[in-house]
TrEMBL record:
Top-level taxon of origin: Bacteria
Ranges for domain Right handed beta helix: 342-507
Pfam families per record: Beta_helix
InterPro entries (alphabetical): Beta_helix (IPR039448), PbH1 (IPR006626), Pectin_lyas_fold (IPR012334), Pectin_lyase_fold/virulence (IPR011050)
SUPFAM superfamilies: Pectin lyase-like (SSF51126)
Name this polypeptide is given: Right-handed parallel beta-helix repeat-containing protein
Length: 704
């Protein structure tokens, strides 16, 4: 400690001689025993944090700012950076951790794996000493900066469930049993896969199940290959969404499944095996296994009014964060809400993350959890993530000082998520209010782009006055999960506005696949000036809710239905006015329209391929007789080239008849220089694969 204080006092002296420019430098070649100057930098963020703590003990530094300048290079983190109330800055003098100008420093929570040799079978193998001597296991692996695939079967497609039986061991008070055993019989593909599992591998084998909006990850307790049977235990199945016939699974984490290029498997004896892809050589291939389960933790104590405040992160890159699969696996949970995050912020104010990057992680990227307010994340590149992008609030309704509010999520690229937990979403807002989600690009997720609200039905909700605007949300679903959307809402959300978003290419496995989805109890939400196209089952769907307004939107080219509503109620469910609906296949409306209480009027409907207009099995005249669309039109909207997704207008005459007001949908999405814009684009092979998945799915007859 005396040595550290000596260093700090040296920094104090130097700082005063530099006109109070309190900059602390860190470098990959530094040393935490150094002074922290430009010529004698520290080595770690933790070292810089500790230096600031000691400097602040000096009265002269109580009202001074600190900037930690991070030099270029790779920083292998041995522990997460943890910030507590004593690590706060002030409004006038924030504490800033930032990259040196022109630098792109990388903070890795992983470990490089090397010394591979090629076996006679063409596999590469190496011994991981930490796995041999310390039983270190990792559940993700990154090869040449890409997520490698844990050995699985089948490599393409799925095994289907034939029959499921459940034995409840302990019911408990919930509808979901506390403990239960499931006996699952598989189809013929499952039987073949089970025959390749060695008995001594059983403790490691897992199955992943995809059922409606849920995803279940479990270990296997026992199996009988001849009967195509696996036995697993954990919580009871959800009565409203159980595993059952035709639900899809894959098996993973056993040696015989290591049969496709890009797959890996870690044996119990510490031998890591990898099947190389074409063009890969041992010399040109980098392997990094994630070690740390968290990279940054910011933790105050709101109940004692001790927050972490005024800390900024600028221009830093964070990679290789491990999510360890629990022995119990992962029970189904919507939006993968039970995961942790690589950067976790709780009980903090004025925390700002800008121009950063988070990638190659097993869980969520950033979570402003309980007790956070007046903070932001902007122009941050989040990609190749096991969970979701940015999560706000808590899944419990926390009041007063623990309530999260006023978080800005702006101009971020959030793509290629849900890679380990497909139910994760791009941006999730739980019990949190007054947030702004704007100008983000959210693409290549399996469940939902933006999810707002965390109450099912009309119970009190804290998700109020959230603004979801000018986001570009696209290529969501991949025909993997169901009951999902580009933008998904839940519960009473008075004051919430969903506006000026561009939403397209949304496709579910069975039902669902909507552009905008007002689910159970959604109340008081305004959906306006949104362009939605290329969905599976509609630009807008309301399950049930109150007094929502859907106004001045363009809803285009859904494949099955353009509009849906599910459950009618005695009160007014929603208002649907001044919208333009254009399509070339499927029905106009499907659902509970004959009995729903809704104001529907002054809309344009146009079938660009035929004269067929099916309004829930009514023609337009019969539809009007239900009290809908008294002043609406079946007429051409005169878009310049709707089939090519150009929805600007050639003529004003028709849309003016319904009071539609044109909006500039090109303003949706991120903004900035050309390099930033280019970074948001999905590779052609990804969008082409999405289109192929849609085409295949539409040919299938899938039971709900």
């Amino acid at each position: 400690m005396n040595n550290i204080k000596h260093i700090v006092f040296a920094i104090v002296f130097l700082s005063f001689n530099l006109n109070a420019q309190h900059k602390i430098y860190i470098s990959p070649n530094g040393n935490d025993a150094n002074l922290g100057t430009k010529t004698e930098p520290l080595a770690t963020l933790i070292g810089a944090r500790n230096a600031i703590r000691l400097l602040k003990e000096n009265q002269s530094f109580k009202t001074q700012a600190f900037t930690v300048i991070v030099k270029d290079g790779l920083y292998v983190m041995k522990a997460p950076l943890e910030l507590f109330p004593e690590d706060s800055g002030t409004e006038e003098y924030p504490i800033i951790y930032k990259a040196e100008e022109g630098a792109h420093p990388v903070f890795s929570g992983g470990k490089t794996i090397s010394n591979f040799i090629e076996t006679e079978t063409g596999l590469w193998q190496t011994k991981v000493p930490e796995s041999v001597y310390y039983n270190w296991k990792f559940d993700q692996l990154y090869v040449n900066n890409n997520r490698a695939t844990l050995a699985k079967t089948p490599n393409q497609g799925f095994i289907k469930i034939d029959t499921v039986f459940q034995n409840i061991w302990k019911q408990g008070k919930s509808k979901v049993a506390e403990r239960a055993e499931q006996i699952i019989y598989l189809d013929s593909n499952g039987a073949k896969a089970l025959q390749n599992i060695k008995p001594n591998e059983l403790k490691n084998v897992r199955f992943k199940a995809y059922h409606k909006w849920d995803y279940t990850l479990r270990h296997i307790d026992d199996f009988i290959a001849d009967n195509s049977k696996i036995v697993t235990s954990g919580k009871g199945m959800k009565p409203w969404n159980p595993l059952k016939k035709d639900r899809r699974i894959i098996l993973e984490n056993y040696e015989a499944a290591l049969d496709a290029p890009g797959e890996w498997f870690l044996k119990d004896n510490g031998i890591l095996l990898y099947k190389p892809k074409d063009g890969e050589t041992i010399n040109n291939t980098e392997f990094i296994a994630p070690v740390l389960g968290n990279l940054i933790t910011i933790a105050g104590n709101a109940s004692e009014n001790k927050y972490v405040q005024y800390v900024n992160f600028e221009g830093l890159i964070f990679k290789h964060c491990h999510y360890k699969i629990p022995p119990t696996g992962s029970e189904p949970n919507q939006a993968a809400a039970i995961l942790n995050a690589a950067i976790l912020v709780e009980n903090a104010k004025h925390i700002n993350i800008s121009n950063c990057e988070v990638s190659n992680i097993g869980q969520h990227a950033v979570w402003f959890g309980k007790g956070c307010s007046y903070s932001s994340i902007n122009k941050t590149y989040i990609h190749n993530i096991g969970g979701g992008g940015v999560y706000l609030g808590d899944f419990k309704p926390l009041q007063n000082e623990l309530h999260t509010h006023h978080i800005s999520v702006e101009n971020n690229i959030i793509k290629s998520g849900g890679q380990e937990f497909p139910a994760a979403v791009g941006v999730w807002v739980g019990h949190s209010s007054d947030n702004t989600i704007t100008h983000n690009d959210i693409g290549n997720f399996f469940y939902t782009g933006v999810s707002v609200g965390w109450v099912w039905g009309y119970k009190p909700s804290l998700a109020k006055r959230n603004t979801i605007s000018y986001n570009h949300i696209h290529h969501i679903g991949w025909a993997l999960l169901s009951d999902m959307a580009g933008i998904y809402t839940l519960g009473a959300s008075e004051g919430t506005v969903v506006e000026n978003n561009l939403i397209h290419h949304i496709h579910s496995y069975s039902y669902g696949g909507w552009g905008m989805y007002a689910d159970e109890g959604s109340t008081g939400i305004v959906f306006k000036n949104n362009l939605v196209y290329s969905t599976k089952t509609g630009g807008f769907q309301q399950n049930y809710g109150k007094h929502n307004v859907v106004k001045n939107n363009i809803l285009a080219f859904a494949k099955k239905y353009q509009l849906q509503c599910t459950i009618p109620e005695k009160h007014k469910s929603f208002t649907f006015t001044n919208n333009i609906i254009i399509f070339n296949e499927g029905m106009v409306a499907k659902g509970a329209w004959d009995t729903v209480v809704a104001e529907i009027d002054k809309n344009i409907y146009w079938n660009s391929s035929s004269t067929n207009y099916n309004f829930n099995n009514h023609n337009f005249k019969e539809w009007k007789a239900l009290g809908f669309d008294k002043h609406s039109l079946i007429t051409k909207p005169y878009f310049k080239d709707a089939e090519a997704f150009n929805f600007s207008f050639k003529r004003k005459k028709n849309y003016k008849k319904i009071g539609f007001k044109p909006f500039n949908y090109s303003e949706a999405g991120i903004y900035g220089d050309d390099a930033w814009i280019e970074k948001s684009k999905l590779k052609p092979e990804i969008t082409e694969a999405f289109d192929k998945a849609v085409e295949t799915n539409m040919k299938m007859k899938i039971k709900r």
